[in-house]
Amino acid sequence: MLILFMNIGIIGTGSIGATLAQKLMAAGHQVKVTNTRQPAELAQKAKELGASPATLQDVVQDVDLVFVSIPLHVIPKLPAGLLRDLPTEVVVADTSNYYPQRDGKIDALENGQVESVWVAEQLGRPIIKAYNNILSQTLVAGSTAPGTSGRIAISVAGDDAQAKQRVAELISATGFDVVDAGSLADSWRQQPGTPAYCTELTAPELTQALAAAVPGKGPQVRDQIMAQLTQRNMPPTRDDLLVLNRSLGMGV
Ligand SMILES: NC(=O)c1ccc[n+]([C@@H]2O[C@H](COP(=O)([O-])OP(=O)(O)OC[C@H]3O[C@@H](n4cnc5c(N)ncnc54)[C@H](OP(=O)(O)O)[C@@H]3O)[C@@H](O)[C@H]2O)c1
């Protein structure tokens, strides 16, 4: 298979953005990153990750693909036009999830708008939704080689088949199988509280889980899970989160 190495910009160097930077660099891509820190601290973080530091304006320039990996409530505060004005061939991928406990209540999402459809509106351009339904701990430690039995899958949703394919190639290069979850409007099936959300499934299992999602149920399950997590004294482990997501989200 011909591998096309990409120039990638990542906005956010938290649990997901930092791990993506490391894995994408390891897979041979060129990665630059940004966060909210002063230049010296950003440079130190980028060095730790093996990526290049960039300002917010520069991280999206001269790249093939941008990951937006920041808390959802920050997305409308990004500078107007930052992503909207990029060439149409630049793929923008969104890893975000809506947690009203963190993001505050957003009326459109409370009224059922699909999260990534709202994100695309805020950014003013089409996006691909990916890496939102994998725990950061799974992203760090759950990679395996293609063909490995039980390989964990990540679903990808979006309206542009070519853009989706580029993101799918990155998912595979970072150690996971890929399931096409359909259009951006279909991506509610991989939002928090659904059977496909952070439940570490193989590709056939994830396909079934996406199909099993019940409209309107995700937010209710998400809030039940958050309520259980806030009662704990210790931060949850990957296993704790998996057990909760599977027992409440999948009903098993
Ligand atoms: N954690 C998970 O398991 C997980 C799994 C799947 C998806 N997600 C979703 O993916 C997104 C990122 O999650 P995360 O856990 O990586 O978040 P996180 O650990 O809280 O990190 C957020 C990152 O965003 C940066 N940031 C915030 N505002 C910014 C701005 N205006 N410009 C540039 N950078 C900005 C922060 O910068 P500083 O470092 O300077 O503070 C930080 O690096 C969220 O929407 C989350 O819901 C999370």
From TrEMBL:
UniProt cross-references to InterPro entries, sorted A to Z: NAD(P)-bd_dom_sf, P5C_Rdtase_cat_N, STEAP_metalloreductase
Annotated Pfam families: F420_oxidored
Keyword terms of this UniProt record: Oxidoreductase
Domain Pyrroline-5-carboxylate reductase catalytic N-terminal: 8-97
Keyword Oxidoreductase included in the entry's annotation: yes
Full protein name: NAD(P)-binding domain-containing protein
Naturally occurring in which organism (per UniProt): Spirosoma liriopis
